[in-house]
Amino acid sequence: MNKELAIKIENLKKSYQGNEAVRGISFEVFKGEMFGLVGPDGAGKTTTIRLLCGLLNPDSGSAVVFEKDIIKNRKEIQNQIGYLSQKFSLYGDLTVDENIEFFADIHGVKNYESRRNELLEFTRLTPFRKRLADNLSGGMKQKLALACSLIHRPKIIYLDEPTTGVDPVSRRDFWKILSGLSKEGITIFMTTPYIDEAERCNRVAFMHNGKIISIDSPNKIKETLNKEVVEIVCTQIRKAYRFIRDETGFEVQMFGDRINVIINSIEKDYPVIENILKKNSIEILNYRQITPSLENIFIHLIRKAG
After folding, report:
1. Phi-psi category of residue 61: left, alpha or beta, with phi > 0 → left and psi -120 to 50 → alpha
2. Are residues 235 and 282 in contact, defined by beta-carbon separation less than 8 angstroms?
3. Helices 96-106 & 138-150, crossing angle to 10 degrees?
4. In a 3-state reduction of DSSP, which class is residue 169?
């Protein structure tokens, strides 16, 4: 990966009516990188991305894009970026072709036809180019929105939770498209609440309550736990969760029909867990030691951060 800087943020802060949305964050994104900003709703992800697009002014701190300050060079930088917001405004009474033409006109792109054809082919929307945007599925609308964001050949594309509410097949298609963009050298900065999507990024930053609580490659973040994880499938899963948490002090995480317990040693600590569950008439159906997942780490870090 080219280590030329695309984005540099230093001590960036933003508040709304006294509530701190972004609380002094600092990080860098490299040119050609796929960078994921991961966190739950209210973490500050959308505010961060809007600051980087020049749509909001920070209270303090700085954001530099391709070595230019976003506030001092707002218009110039906005011509070099694409932005797909959570509620991208497609025009439902225009066709796929006409929507892309409209955004080409906004960005002053002349002779856009070949670029439009290229994007329609790339997003597999060519067969639907005469269809009204209102008549597209959710996944197809997102792909059209992406095509509109790319018509002016931006160097960076910002995607704010682009696959939220999209069906699994469309999510997979969308990620194939992003992978293709990354191979072309476009810098991709995306926010997502989905940990499985974070796994696909070159680096991720975990955001919680307006702060960055961890930043690195997914694999390196996983290596930071320095503990073992035992996965348990048992009867009365909610009661098991409470008993283990209350009687051992171990960190317990629930995932559907199973619980993960963060322990120091499976040899020493699992028998303690086993005894507690047996004492409370909870049957263990299966257990195994697993490699810590990014989701394990994220939950652990959020709890640690309070």
Report:
1. left
2. yes
3. 30
4. helix
pLDDT of 51-105, one tens digit each?
Answer: 999 999 999 999 999 999 999 999 999 889 999 987 777 899 999 999 999 999 9
Residue 222 lies in a domain: no
Calpha distance 150→273 (Å, rounded): 53
Q: How many CB atoms lie within 10 A of CB 61?
A: 16
Query: Which distant-in-sequence residues (6+ apart) come within 8 Å of 150 by Cβ?
Result: 82, 119, 157, 181
What are the helix (H) ranges across the chain? Answer: 45-52, 74-78, 96-106, 113-122, 138-150, 168-183, 195-198, 218-222, 237-248, 266-279, 294-305
Of the three residues 217, 243, 272, the one that is the final residue of a domain is 217
Note if the pTM is more than 0.90. Answer: no
* Structural domain boundaries, residue 277: 228-305
